[in-house]
């Protein structure tokens, strides 16, 4: 039975002999000492019959390797480096400079905004003051202009009145002479004309006689020192009232 089982088992190499203590120094002289050549595995035995059992040597399992990624891998961040005191001082100085510049920029903006507000307020105050000044000056100019116009009106009225007094008096006299001439002509045209007597200023009597023409021979002229011309025909009396008109004109001139 042992012979049958031995046919199906592989052959094993004999065990290497154990080196004796005396042979130990020889191992340091020969580097190959103590090494045995590995035996090749024996070929499997194949039985001649159909019921033969086939024995194969156990093969070691090869570990399965995972495929490596082909794409680019992200670089690993470098390890953090501790900054030196000089670098820390430089960073602090740079931060302080940035803060100072930002503070200066903010201060400039605030100053510019304050300047613009002050300019607007000053312009508003100037416009308000100019408006008040314009109103006050306009009122003063209007009052002065009105006073000047009133003074000019008074002066012109006085001068014009003084210039017109002789003209009005002369015109009034001419009108009175014309009216008296017409009245005397009507009186002298009556069939039984009464005696007509005319008294008054000599210049007016001369003008009246010249205006009557040939009819002046039937009229008795008597010069007098009165400003009025008076015509008497029996009970009819005609008065020119030149003195009253002259006094009215003089009063108007005095009031002007």
Summarize the structure.
Keywords: Coiled coil. With 256 residues, this protein is α+β, with helices and mostly antiparallel strands.
Proportion of beta-strand residues? 5-15%
The gyration radius over C-alpha positions equals: 80 Å
Average pLDDT figure: 71
Overall geometry:
rod-shaped
Major sheet: order of its strands? 2-1-3-4
Q: Structural class of the helices, strands and pairings? A: alpha+beta
The helix/strand series, from N terminus to C terminus, equals HHHEHEEEH
Number of H/I helices: 5
Largest sheet: 4 strands, mixed
N- to C-terminal distance: 181 Å
Identify low-pLDDT runs: 21-25
Task: Please count the beta strands (DSSP E, at least 2 residues each).
Answer: 4
- The percent of residues in helical segments reads 55-70%
SSE blueprint and pairings:
Elements: H1 2-8, H2 24-29, H3 85-188, E1 196-200, H4 202-212, E2 219-223, E3 230-233, E4 236-239, H5 242-255
Parallel strand pairs: 1-2
Antiparallel strand pairs: 1-3, 3-4
Helix pairs in contact: 3-4, 3-5
